[in-house]
Every structure is written in structure tokens, then in C-alpha cells.
Amino acid sequence: MREIRSTTEVAPGILFVEGPASNWTVFHGGGSVELVDCGYPADRPLVEASIRQAGAEPAALRRILITHGHSDHLGASRELAADSGARVQTAADELPNVRREVTEQVTVADLLPSVLKRGTVRWAVEAIRAGGLGDVGVPAATAFDGDTLALSTGHRLQVVATPGHTSGHVCFFEPDARALITGDAVVTGHALLRDAGELQQLPAFFHHDVDGAERSARLLDLCDATAVLPGHGPLLRL
């Protein structure tokens, strides 16, 4: 049974959700809800439960912002958007990945050199069961405009371009809460990482451009964050 690991009210109207294997953030306020990422496809009931935990209903969903177009972040965004009328948006450079015109995602062949490492097979099996190989593309997705997004919930997000993990990967910084949503640019844990609770990068085979991913990870040091909301692993207070 899939279960939410933890939820944290980072600031008023910002609920960080550590899911079974990947994370998402619920912004709520003014009768509206906006999401950043959606977990795996199988996490849809958990995403909806987290919206209700925030005191709202899934029907109040207005927009889903995607850090990058991997299955464990796109999740059930297409279906959630269809049911609520919400928009799915991402960076312009990430649109082909989100729409599945291209697929910059780890393959079985990429995993073969690591297949004997502890946890690799178990992680792969669980990812497949969660819908990791499913049809998660969002053909109707659009690109957001500008480098600052005004949310319908009253929050605002600054867009931080962090290409490398994928071509158009972005992070989002909420300046009032000083909260940095990192997607997979940096994480605090993963089934294939030994340590948890500290900032680190995913194994290299997950990245479309390893050198670019390293440059982007260093770029995040410039953000004035006191809370890091990663795509994998627990929230980290700085």
C-alpha cells in the first residue's frame, strides 16, 4: 500500500509532501490550489488526499507546475488537469519532454551497470509498479511566461533554470518563505543513494547532461533559501 511519508506546513499556504518515492508541494489559498509536481501516476489518491489535508478540494486545482518531465514528477497530472480544468505548465525547454515528444529518462539499459548494487532491482520494480513506464505525457501542456510566477493562491515563485537532469529542468524559489523547490537538481535522499538528509545529487545515470547537472547544482548555492523542498528525500531546513 502506498503511503505519504510525511507532510510539512513550510509556511502559510505551502504544504510539502514527502511521498512514497518522490515528492510534491501543495500551494493553497483564496479558494485555489496549485501543485508543483505530482509524484508517480499511482500517487494520484495521495496527491488528492494531501490537497484535502490542506483544507481544499481537488476540484479547486488551477495549475500544475512541473519541474521536469520524468514519470515520477509528471505522475497523474494529465488526469488531474482533465478532471479539474487545471493547466499543466513547465519551462519552454522542457515542453518536449513533458509532452513526450522526446523522452529524457533513465532506461533499463542505463541501469544495467548498477543492477548488482544493493537496492537497484527493488527500486526499479517499485518504480514500474507505480507507473514509471506508463503513458504520462501531457500533450496539452504549455510553457509559463517570465521568471516570476504569480500563483492564484497569493504566492509567487521565482523560476530558476537548472538544466542538466533534463534539458529544461527548473527549480522554484518562494521568496517570502525562502523555500526552494529543487525537483531533481539536488535531493536529500533516494533509494539508490546511501545517505539521507543532506543535499546531494542523484546517481549520474539519471542525468541527461551530467556536467550540466553539476553546474546547476552549484548554482543553487546562490539562492537565499532556509528550506529546501527536494524531489526526493525529506525536507531540509538550512
Structural overview:
This protein has 238 residues and is an alpha/beta fold. The chain has one domain (6-237): Ribonuclease Z/Hydroxyacylglutathione hydrolase-like (Metallo-beta-lactamase, Chain A), CATH 3.60.15.10. 21% of the residues lie in helices and 25% in strands. It has helices at residues 44-53, 71-74, 77-84, 95-98, 108-111, 120-129, 210-219, and strands at residues 6-11, 14-18, 23-29, 32-36, 61-65, 87-90, 142-143, 148-150, 156-161, 170-174, 179-183, 227-230, 236-237. The strands form 2 sheets. A 7-stranded mixed sheet has the order 1-2-3-4-5-6-7. The chain is globular and about 50 Å long.
Question: Topology of this structure?
Answer:
Blueprint: E1 6-11, E2 14-18, E3 23-29, E4 32-36, H1 44-53, E5 61-65, H2 71-74, H3 77-84, E6 87-90, H4 95-98, H5 108-111, H6 120-129, E7 142-143, E8 148-150, E9 156-161, E10 170-174, E11 179-183, H7 210-219, E12 227-230, E13 236-237
Parallel strand pairs: 4-5, 5-6, 6-7, 11-12
Antiparallel strand pairs: 1-2, 2-3, 3-4, 8-9, 9-10, 10-11, 12-13
